UniProtKB/TrEMBL annotation:
SUPFAM superfamilies in UniProt: NAD(P)-binding Rossmann-fold domains
InterPro entries assigned: NAD(P)-bd_dom_sf, Sacchrp_dh-like_C, Sacchrp_dh_NADP-bd
Lineage top rank: taxon: Bacteria
Protein name: Saccharopine dehydrogenase family protein
Domain Saccharopine dehydrogenase NADP binding: 5-136
Length: 399
């Protein structure tokens, strides 16, 4: 039916490639492209021989002209961007130049500052409309499925949603004293930034990880959850009818936070360049190089994740509460695709979004966050493609 160019060769890209190959009726051909072509070749070697034809290519995703030439040579229907968020705009520019649809899993952020917002990508809306092509932003789990969950809740159970609490819990254990479950540079920039939430039309900032609660999550039990800013808050505050308050919570162990604080105190989480032996380096990038590769955590990680939304609002004038979530097992993910659940929960939704675009189910020119699109076909595919969801109509609320 279609062709997908997958840019990136890390843990999430590996899941996307595996899941595309599980759906050859839709993904007849894929091309895996990265600056490190050896990683692409390793993925191809694992999965070659099935009905999905696999190519590989070397590309510098920071170089728009290189991406343009690759798109022209392969001729994809959609580009699935699972490279670094710094590269979103160069890849979007290449899609505009070639008239090809675009999908990513994380919003653009400039390398020189930890600033998470959609303004740069939303500015492309008119250009994509005029070009007759579509861009789907943030189609991982959070952002991604959390937006689809919110749209589904509004469509089926609420007239208005007043409060959304997104809770992202990882009860997995990889056995290392300290490691991050996805790209360390992106992960640590996100966590060490100020927290922020939306309430009554205003954004309220909090010091990093200063607000903590305990929440009892299905299948993984009570966990410490900390308030931080996540990019889907910006789009959901704009797109969900009636919203008055929206927050994002994530679990961290005390061990993780202690290690992070020490690294922060000695300057290893800084993104300000320093001179070292006559060369300019960025401490956080050096730290990334010495930490375990998230793609290597799969065989070591045990336990489960639980990610979902708790919504409060009204239906027919009456108060209504709703909790929808997915529980994912790290070891089951590894048995299926050779990756842990953090990569799995991001890669599967990216494949689903691309599938809906290729099939024409999600297809209209412009730039969209997932909650602006029909949630029903996506929710159906979550159940059949590896991320089944559960509902609770009387959840414990976060005050």
């Amino acid at each position: 039916m279609g062709k997908a160019l997958i840019i990136g060769a890390g843990g999430v890209a590996s899941v996307v490639v595996h899941k595309c190959c599980q759906n050859p009726d839709v993904f007849e051909e894929i091309c895996i492209a990265s600056r490190t072509v050896e990683k692409c070749e390793a993925l191809k070697k694992k999965l070659d021989g099935g009905r999905t034809k696999i190519q590989t290519a070397r590309v510098d995703a920071d170089n728009t002209e290189e991406v343009i030439q690759l798109i022209k040579s392969f001729g994809p229907d959609v580009v699935i961007n699972v490279a670094l968020p710094y590269q979103d705009l160069t890849i979007m520019d290449a899609c505009l130049a070639t008239g090809v649809h675009y999908l990513d899993t994380a919003n653009y952020e400039p390398p020189e500052t930890a600033k998470f917002e959609y303004s740069w990508q939303w500015a492309y809306k008119k250009k994509f409309e005029e070009a007759g092509i579509m861009a789907v932003l943030g189609c991982g789990f959070d952002p991604g499925v959390t937006g689809v969950f919110s749209a589904y809740a509004l469509k089926h159970y609420f007239d208005e949603i007043h409060t959304i609490d997104i809770v992202d819990a990882n009860a997995g254990d990889h056995g290392y004293p300290f490691a991050t479950n996805f790209n360390p540079e992106i992960n640590i920039r996100e966590i060490t930034a100020n927290g922020r939430y939306y309430e009554n039309g205003e954004w309220i900032e909090t010091p990093p990880l200063s607000e903590k609660k305990v929440y009892d999550l299905p299948e993984i039990g009570p966990k410490d959850i900390y308030l931080l800013y996540h990019e889907e808050l910006e789009s959901l505050a704009k797109n969900i009818t009636g919203i008055k308050k929206i927050r994002f919570w994530m679990t961290f162990s005390q061990n993780y936070l202690t290690h992070l604080k020490v690294l922060e105190n000695v300057g290893m989480t800084s993104i300000e360049p320093i001179m070292f032996e006559g060369k300019e380096i960025i401490p956080l990038q050096f730290l990334k190089a010495v930490l375990p590769d998230p793609a290597s955590l799969g065989p070591r990680t045990k336990g489960k994740t639980n990610i979902g939304i708790i919504a409060q609002g009204t239906k027919d004038g009456e108060p209504k509460n709703y909790y929808v979530y997915n529980v994912c097992d790290h070891q089951e993910c590894y048995r299926e695709v050779g990756s842990q659940a953090i990569s799995y929960t991001t890669g599967v939704p990216a494949m689903i979004g691309a599938m809906l675009m290729i099939k024409g189910t999600w297809m209209k020119p412009g730039v969209y966050n997932v909650e602006e699109l029909d949630p029903d076909p996506f929710m159906e595919l979550l159940n059949t493609k590896g991320l089944p969801w559960q509902e609770d109509f009387s959840p414990t609320l976060l005050d």
